[in-house]
Amino acid sequence: MSEKIDYSKGVYDARQLGAGRMFILGVQHMFAMFGATVLVPLLTGLSVSTTLLCAGLGTLLFHLITKKKVPAFLGSSFAYLGGFSIVAPMLADADGNLTVANTKMLPYACAAIAFSGLVYLAASVLISTFGIRRIMKFFPPVVTGPIIISIGLILAPSAINNCQSNWILAFVALGTVIACNIWGKGMVKILPILIGVLVSYAVALVTGAVDFQRISEAAWVGIPLHREAMGLFAIDGSPEFISALFTIIPIALATMMEHVGDIAAISATVGHNYINDPGLNRTLLGDGLATTMAGLLGGPANTTYGENTGVLALSKIYDPLVIRIAAVLAIILSFSPKFEAVINTIPTGIIGGISFVLYGMISAIGVRNVVENRVDFTNSRNLIVAAVILVCALGFNSVGGVSFAVAGVTINLSGLAVAAIAGILLNAVLPGNDYEFDAADGSEAASSSNLQV
């Protein structure tokens, strides 16, 4: 029966593919999120194993709250890196390199992460109280589209930086993904990411670009939770805790805007309006509570992952069950430092090649979101809103965002946060805001019949 499946129209029930194929698809989603997810703990001093555990548990919690309808994976958020660098900066080792975890301050940063998740809860309550129409008046396609475009463009330099470490491996990975997606048949067509990683990794083995020393040194089994970073034990009235709250909580305003853009991107990819069903209030609540849980357990903030949205667009397998399989795999593997070491042997060039197409896919989805919602750019008002969002996102991101002091504590807003705030405010105050969110027909989502990448 599975041989007759028309993958071009999208698969919404992965059970018809069989257990074996669903497992492989789950592995693909896990690979897609792994590189970016583990990068955050490497930059902040948090545990990679804890991060994997929080990503898996957070994703399952999100799916539970959203009635198991939204095919989203929650991984580490990069938006909070600035907050970590202020509250718990990395310490220098014997050679002067900033590679030592700041175990004294990390719990306070994680505790603040937990409280930032409660901001999502407040937003969810507002939507439930005043209705989706009033709230979505602030998030029309002319705002969400450019925000989605900006997410991909902001991520683009990191893909190039990774590629520069080994352009040969990057091109092999990128070329394999393109070839599988364009000319592949059956399972080859819906597993481009995993095949791209395996083929380029094989090339890396032949060329001697893989270092196996870390694998031999790693243990097979380990506990992913580490008390020295758990925010659960740092909630007090100390000056360090208060300072961490003022520094990190405002970042949630930016990540909520990213969340709206990500959910709009997933809606456009799948062809179902998840902002309406199960509702933005539920998706925000799920994301926020997952972040709160992660902070309490000593992990970084969670966020819906654009990498996995790119996988959805490439594979056209839209069943959330596949994402939950990936989440369970992340939880299981969080207990194996040996597996973590194996994944860390994947050369950076391969990650760059895979990211090259995934990050571009995010921006392309943003363009499609604008086009399919027929945003009129002959209207100067819409043109100005989009222009301000794009310049703010890319411009301020290039200079490290915007910093200002509150109660003696310096707070940094990323370029994307500034862009989202500027876009929302401009859209609200400029005359001609005639957008009406149609919860009945799902105007934020595109038709699944014409989603071609």
Automatic annotation (TrEMBL):
Q: How does it sit in the membrane?
A: Multi-pass membrane protein
Q: Which organism is it from?
A: Faecalibacterium wellingii
Q: Where is it located? A: Membrane
Q: Which keywords annotate this record?
A: Membrane, Transmembrane, Transmembrane helix, Transport
For this protein, the record's Pfam families field holds: Xan_ur_permease
| InterPro entries named among the record's database cross-references | NCS2, Xan_ur_permease
List the PANTHER family hit by this protein, alphabetically: PURINE PERMEASE C1399.01C-RELATED
What is the name attached to this protein's record? Uracil-xanthine permease family protein
